[in-house]
Design a protein that fits this description.
About 35% of the residues lie in helices and about 25% in strands. It is globular, with a radius of gyration of 22 Å. The chain starts with a helix and ends in a 10-residue tail after the last helix. It has a twelve-stranded antiparallel beta sheet, sandwiched between helices. With about 325 residues, it is an alpha+beta fold. It folds into two domains: about 35-180, 3-Layer(aba) Sandwich (Protein Transport Mog1p, Chain A), CATH 3.40.1000; about 185-205 and about 210-310, no CATH class. It has eleven helices and twelve strands.
Length: about 325
Amino acid sequence: MTLAPLRQLLPLLVLASACAETSTGPTGAASLPRPILDDEDPWSMIPAEADLVLWADMAKLRSSPWTRDSFAKVALQDAASAEPGLDQMGNIDHLVFAKVPALRDGASLLVAEGRFDREKLRAAFAHKAGASEISTYRGAEVNIRGDEALAFLGKRTMLSGLTVAVRAAIDCNIGVARAIDSESWLQKLRGEMGRDKGPTPPVAALYVRLQTATREELMREMGEGGNLEEFGARVDLDSDLSVNAIGATRTEQQARDLAARLGERIREVRGRPIVAAFGLGSVVDSVRFIAEDVRVHGNLRVSERERSEISQRMTIVAELLAKMRKEKPQGEENKQP
């Protein structure tokens, strides 16, 4: 089953393309097996060795005024696709994507909770290869195609990824392997980012425990991240949009230096003409980076009024560009700017 719609909907997955080394996190003792339930917590299925985890509340993203138009456009594209099963993306309520390189280089896992047409998903899974094998693992029916697998747990949960990762998720679900929701680094990040947020979960969140290869990739792409040990970001969509991020470094001095460099980059961005053109000045001005102990806290907020104004300006610019292109003399369209 293709994940192209997921990549379109969730830009945070860009970090998932970074390579990662084998995790050295604690494995701990396995707890007693527990039965597979109809409605499980997706977090309990992510192996403890995962070094990147992305959470998304797809139901909220589909209904939020901040994102529903984008989701609607992708839904139209999926509806026009000849590939079976793409329309099932609209039935996902909650989603967790994880990279688990300790299982195998490049291993990833998708855990989705929602209302699925299992036969359509199985057809989509077998679409490219033309067939898939069906086997049973710890009581769960698993479809296997080459190195990849698709499995269903209970009534509402789907697992997809490399077979080794899907089996590891099933192990976590029944309690014979340790899940990431008990890992101290993740618990700490989730707790810090959820401070003052109450019991409401975020609409999207990213948690990364940086390995050497991941850190090197960030340095190549962004020029930052050389001293980062962990990173987390949380997105909340109410009437306002807010993003809270935390980066953990090794020392207090590294945290102060990183906060200062990021603040300088924001000031550079503030002076760019496109920021003024789209009315993003107040948004950029809202970004704050504060060093506390060995952590850097970042915050951004966009108000409902600002969202409306930005949307209007982007619409005006898009219409202007379309008009300019339409009025361009014949033969000019293919000339380089």
